[in-house]
Amino acid sequence: xTMTKVFLPVALSLFFSTPFLQSAHAGASGWFETEGARIRLxxxxxxxxxxxxxxxxxxxxxxxxxxxxxxxxxxxxxxIDTKPAPHIANVEIGFPPPKRFEDKYGDWAGYKERVALPLxxxxxxxxxGDIAVHFFxxxxxxxxxPVDGQLAVPVTELENLRETLAINRAFEALPKKAxxxxxxxxxxxxxxxxxxxxxxxxxxxxxxxxxxxSDGYRLAMPEKKAExxxxxxxxxxxxxxxxPSGPGLAYTLESEGNAVAGYLPYPVPHx
Length: 271
Known about the structure:
This protein is mostly beta strands. The chain contains 2 helices and 22 strands. It holds the Pfam family DsbD_N.
């Protein structure tokens, strides 16, 4: 029987957090405090006109964790939007390589101690204003707390060197783009399973693969096949009726301290 992580009710979780817009100074928002973690927004100008780079910095207390882009059956994937700032057209969120966690609730991917999620903001042409976000994520120990709040950095304070360096480090921690020598590809698929072959640097046998379910696909955690260290299997738990129009299933492949990211083609729908 599948066990479900126990979440505090949202009303109770708000008791542990500060659910109002946090003002900022020196390129960083104030800290948003919640049980098990504190969260802040960093922002800095970029070399590209109309683009602001940032990061959502999450500091976790010992024993607490938060989730990757695919949180498993019962977690909470990070969500970030710019509803508090209509002058921002779009925000893209990046995910550094996660770790795999196994507990009584199942297997899932996430982070512990501290993680900075890189953010790329695209401003609407001719518009200017504070960098503000609404975020929703989960932090988990024995219980999981859904955290919902807003953070902002004044547009006049995007030049601080310390925050710029922290944002640069967040982007540098992202996986590199997959290439022909270091990547993952679907080798075979059935109605309920994907067999994925890894292309790895010579002598590399300690790879860890993460594949995110999205666009109607729900996936189990990848499992290394016993007979081949370069092969993983991924169970398909649910799929859409039609092939989506997106880029595919996002994956991250990590080995020997290096990581790459790419997309696997959507599995063919089975009716």
